[in-house]
Design brief:
This protein is mainly alpha-helical. It is about 65% helix and about 0% strand. The chain is built from 10 helices and no strands. It has helices at about 1-5, 15-55, 95-100, 115-135, 140-160, 165-180, 190-215, 220-235, 240-260, 270-295. Helix 2 (about 15-55) packs across helix 4 (about 115-135) and helix 5 (about 140-160) crosses helix 10. The protein is globular, with a radius of gyration of 22 Å. The protein starts with a helix and ends with a helix.
């Protein structure tokens, strides 16, 4: 108990949170890289099983080949360089430090290592530090860390693949309801209504857009993510989240088009903007409401 009391000291806790956040960020990089591949492997296995049970499909509809044998999950096999296959040792896997020491290159083949890896680690560390600064040594701090880390992983995956995996969004929803059993971030009643309202809000937008244009404006993953956000923050903050995500999305989308880095016809994932808005609402939502709602009347 004395050890935990020492770790909770104001001068020590932020450093403990930073180290924890950096380590979690390193793991998030694995999740971001591997989870979409795991989903693809599962899909290929299901396609192969279906083809084997029903026979080969008609010409022009080839069945994707089944994945290569061998375990592949978040822990197996060990991390390796994607260019040369060299194993990444423990010393080469220290968050941020190893990337800086290796100057962003593989130790074996000198292939470049994306700067996104240390950026994810740094962001995860900053989320942890701010959470303990904001909430102190409490369940709310742990919850804010977990919520922020999950949103970070979903943002990166959505940017890469335009997917928001159910393996993350659904547990996030249930975790929001559980942590609010005691009203950590919102009363349980508000969290339950928030989960339902979050899903239905974007579901209605989806169908309105589809009926009007014949096109799909967003994916079902966005519905589930907003439902999870509602479960964490309560229904009262959903209008703020939707407004903030729309504003951020519009600004970023216009900037990308103006800078000629993104074609108008190319879809822009909405998940990252929802995630950013949820983080803003979690940490600064009450202050925003206190300062701006009176101005807006």
């Amino acid at each position: 108990m004395a050890v935990f009391g020492w770790l909770a000291q104001p001068a020590v806790l932020p450093w403990v949170a930073l180290v924890l956040g950096l380590c979690i960020g390193s793991f998030l990089n694995v999740v971001i890289h591997r989870l979409p591949k795991m989903m693809e492997r599962e899909w290929r296995e299901q396609c192969a099983e279906l083809a084997a049970s029903t026979g080969e499909p008609r010409s022009g509809s080839p069945v994707p080949p089944p994945p290569s044998k061998g375990r592949y999950n978040l822990f197996v096999p060990r991390s390796a360089c994607p260019a040369c296959g060299a194993r990444i040792t423990a010393l080469q896997n220290i968050p941020i430090v190893s990337w800086l020491a290796l100057r962003g290159k593989c130790a074996a083949c000198r292939a470049g290592i994306a700067a996104r890896y240390p950026v994810i680690e740094l962001l995860a560390g900053l989320i942890a530090v701010y959470a303990v600064w904001r909430y102190g040594p409490s369940l709310a701090a742990l919850g804010a860390m977990g919520f922020g880390w999950t949103l970070l992983a979903l943002t990166a995956i959505d940017l890469d693949t335009q997917l928001l995996p159910d393996d993350i969004t659904l547990p996030l929803l249930w975790a929001g309801l559980l942590i609010n059993l005691g009203g950590t971030f919102a009363p349980l009643r508000s969290a339950l209504i928030g989960a339902v309202a979050g899903y239905l809000a974007l579901w209605l937008v989806y169908w309105a857009f589809r009926l009007a244009t014949g096109k799909e404006g967003m994916g079902y993953g966005d519905f589930k993510l907003l439902a999870a956000i509602g479960a964490w923050l309560g229904w009262q903050k959903l209008p703020m989240v939707i407004l903030l995500s729309s504003v951020v999305g519009a600004v970023v989308g216009i900037a990308l088009i103006v800078l000629a880095r993104h074609g108008r016809e190319k879809p822009i994932p909405f998940g990252p903007y929802l995630a950013a808005a949820a983080a803003i609402a979690l940490f600064w939502g009450d202050e925003i409401a206190r300062r701006w709602l009176p101005i807006l009347g």
